[in-house]
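Data availability excerpt. The first of two example chains:
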Amino acid sequence: MGKAISYDVRVKIVKRRQSGESYKSIAEDFGLSQSGVKKIWYRYQQVGEAAYLPDYSNCGRPVVYQPADYEAVNLVRDNAQGAAYVHSKLVQQQPDKQVPSIRTIQRLWVKQGIQRPKGKPSDREKKVE
């Protein structure tokens, strides 16, 4: 399996490649594969200095939930409860079904524009009993 290549090493790879060194010699000096060195170089050619930073956009597996799953999330949230509460309620209601994770629920609410504001509520926002 591949390993992460540090920012400094990526910069050195690009500098050495710009000076005309071969992929093979660069890879041997840093203990990397030639394909890894090529990927850094090609990415540098495409996006410039952004190639020095890691790209995690393709990491993880995409999980696709049906619209009914998201409707269930919004039905459970009858007040301004947090995602952890809603997740626990869904797990209780549907123990045999895979429910969206807490973070997925939070992202859904951000996308819908119905997330709670961060931080503690002000005195005006607190319930008066």
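And the second chain:
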Amino acid sequence: MTKTEKYIVGIVVLVVVALGGFFFGKIGSGNTAGDFAGGITPGTLVTASASGGITGNGYIQPVGAFSSAAINGITVGGTDQYHGFTAYVTASGTPASVVTLGALGLASSTATSSVTVPETAGLSIGAICSGSSATTTVYVSGCVLTTTNGATGTALVAYSNITGANLSVPTSTIFRLTFDQLPY
């Protein structure tokens, strides 16, 4: 091999090594800048507000694929599958007066009270809700929206004593109500 041929082979090897290093470096490295692998930043995961929501105390709500859809169409943190309404309207309230309920099974074991519903968009009078109580001795057996002006409303709540003895239900007992906004 002549001296010129050696230079040509050396230049070709150098070019191949340089190009190979460049291309393999681009393919293998990707963009690793930032906190996320590959430099890909995810989209919005949640929407939130410090002072918004039904009660004005703020909320955090997952969006898109991060909301969890149940097979009955109700979702957590998204919209229901039938229309664009938020899946839940919630309200909390307390009995208007102290009530003494009889033991479980007695006719006197159930009472009713009205609870203010702060948001009724998408609901109509007669909308049914479910609920719970902040105590383990009182059971919310049913509730229904009785009035609405399109923004606020009132729900009639039926609640029961689930113990074996008479029970005094104070006005500090909190009822939590949930309306889904599917058509009835």
